[in-house]
């Protein structure tokens, strides 16, 4: 193992060593018997942290069988018992929070503060769904026929497969996974190859649940295909790119298998003259560069009114220039990108924008960090691109990196038009104190979420999801719970009454005359 991969505590590196080539199955950590398919790199140094292997097809089949067996026992428990088990798992995650957060930072490059926060958000999602999962399992309806009893029941799908990206592997696992468990399902998590060790370390907290109920299956595309197409998996939750999301949705459509797809975003951030510019500038810097810009709800289209453009940009670029960059286990605001492939892709997006007439006014390259061990890391400077127009490729793309494109507008109508012209519709932001602009934004922006003077906040009780090419379905809130439940409608006549108002023989009086 490369010496440049040894930042952090020795205990965490010892823990990482136990996760190499493993999966988390019915018996806990087990050896993945397929071929090794990747070295795990520290994105800050490009040093080798470990390695991951595929499961064999037979192992995946066994995982699915174990999940279905565990699900039947889990669903037979009372809702209160399931809630207590999920709370117990959340307590165990909290005990392991610092270790999981350090592994997450080491494996993905996320600053430790953000990693620690992410594990916290996963815990709150678990505790939230533990409670609302037992709040209501159906509804009594007013009857259409006197003397009957009409009601619905909510029932689990069965075994849910959760396919994860690398940018938020822990919290996204629980936004869907905790809901699925609370609804009475088993879950099989397919982690990103760039966050597999983190996901395995996190999963160990679930050994307090029935064996096989929560499993983690690393692997390449064929493993995902096997899980999506398996006759004994019943629900798919996918977070990732638009092309892969289309493949998953098509496969699910061919099977009539329910799915939730969270694909991509290219969120607008509108700044109007009535905004508190110093607050808006700081908010925009955070929204654009949190997790090195690798957030589906990152600000990628900064839309600024002419009247305050110069002053706002002075404030904004001042905040961006002050961002500290370096190894995520040090005092930094921005770490490296997740991997070299993503770094190269993002550099191409910026180069194409410049080729089409845009101007890089801050950043634009790989930084000099003054630390030789970080020289091979996947770092990119926080970058501001101005003079951008909607006919450029960058307008239609998701940047998904530490860069923001800035658009100058002369009216609120023009700002709304720019915001809604994107093929994506995940989140959106407005900084304004004008009540008319606020009212129009929340009603006219085509997106799943609108943040007004409060960028990128989440709430376990409120739904998360997008429109257009950002995907289908919702996570979080009551909607997120129902994503993992069937609704069954019952009509009961306890008296077994004759229903002569519509049974044979039809009345002669009602025949055609």
TrEMBL record:
Gene3D superfamilies: Aldehyde Dehydrogenase, Chain A, domain 1 (3.40.605.10), Aldehyde Dehydrogenase, Chain A, domain 2 (3.40.309.10)
Residue span(s) of domain Aldehyde dehydrogenase: 37-489
InterPro entries: Ald_DH/histidinol_DH (IPR016161), Ald_DH_C (IPR016163), Ald_DH_N (IPR016162), Aldehyde_DH_dom (IPR015590)
CDD domains listed in its UniProt record: ALDH
GO MF entries: oxidoreductase activity, acting on the aldehyde or oxo group of donors, NAD or NADP as acceptor
Xref: Pfam families: Aldedh
Designated name of the protein: Unannotated protein
UniProt organism field: freshwater metagenome
């Amino acid at each position: 193992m490369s010496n440049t991969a040894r930042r952090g505590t020795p205990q965490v590196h010892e823990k990482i060593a136990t996760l190499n080539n493993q999966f988390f199955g019915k018996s806990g950590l087990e050896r993945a018997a397929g071929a090794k398919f990747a070295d795990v790199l520290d994105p800050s140094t490009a040093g080798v942290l470990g390695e991951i292997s595929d499961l064999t097809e037979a192992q995946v089949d066994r995982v699915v069988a174990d999940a279905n067996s565990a699900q039947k026992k889990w669903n037979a428990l009372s809702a209160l018992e399931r809630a207590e088990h999920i709370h117990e798992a959340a307590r165990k995650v909290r005990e392991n929070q610092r270790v999981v957060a350090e592994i997450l930072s080491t494996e993905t490059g996320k600053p430790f503060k953000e990693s620690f926060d992410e594990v916290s958000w996963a815990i709150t999602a678990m505790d939230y769904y533990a409670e609302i999962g037992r709040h209501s399992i159906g509804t009594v309806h007013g009857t259409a026929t006197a003397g009957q009893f009409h009601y619905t029941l909510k029932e689990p799908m069965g075994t849910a497969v959760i396919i994860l990206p690398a940018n938020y592997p822990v919290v996204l696992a629980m936004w869907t996974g905790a809901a699925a468990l609370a609804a009475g399902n088993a879950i099989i998590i397919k982690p990103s190859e760039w966050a597999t060790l983190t996901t395995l370390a996190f999963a160990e907290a679930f050994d307090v649940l029935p064996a096989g109920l929560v499993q983690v299956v690393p692997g390449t595309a064929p493993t995902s295909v096997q899980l999506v197409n398996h006759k004994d998996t019943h629900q798919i939750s996918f977070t990732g790119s638009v092309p892969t999301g289309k493949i998953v949705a098509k496969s699910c459509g061919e099977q009539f298998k329910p799915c939730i797809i969270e694909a991509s975003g290219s969120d607008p951030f509108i700044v109007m003259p009535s905004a508190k510019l110093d607050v808006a500038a700081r908010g925009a810097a955070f929204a654009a560069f949190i997790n090195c810009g690798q957030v589906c709800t990152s600000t990628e289209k900064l839309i600024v009114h002419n009247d305050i453009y110069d002053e706002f940009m002075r404030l904004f670029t001042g905040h961006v220039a002050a961002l500290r960059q370096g190894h995520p286990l040090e005092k930094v605001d921005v770490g490296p990108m997740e991997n070299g492939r993503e770094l190269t892709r993002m550099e191409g997006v910026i180069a194409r924008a410049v080729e089409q007439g845009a101007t890089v006014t801050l950043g634009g390259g790989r930084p000099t960090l003054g630390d030789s061990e970080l020289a091979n890391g996947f770092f990119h400077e926080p970058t501001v691109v101005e003079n951008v127009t909607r006919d450029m490729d960058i307008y239609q793309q998701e940047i998904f990196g530490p860069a923001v494109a800035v658009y100058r507008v002369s009216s609120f109508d023009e700002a709304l038009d720019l915001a809604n012209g994107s093929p994506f519709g995940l989140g959106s932001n407005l900084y304004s104190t004008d009540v008319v602009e606020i009212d129009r934004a929340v009603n006219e922006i085509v997106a799943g979420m609108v943040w007004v003077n409060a960028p990128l906040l989440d709430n376990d009780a409120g739904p998360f999801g997008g429109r257009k090419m950002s995907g289908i379905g919702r996570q979080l809130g009551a909607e997120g719970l129902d994503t993992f439940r069937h609704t069954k409608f019952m009509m009961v006549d306890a008296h077994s009454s004759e229903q002569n108002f519509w049974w044979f023989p039809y009345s002669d009086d009602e025949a055609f005359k």
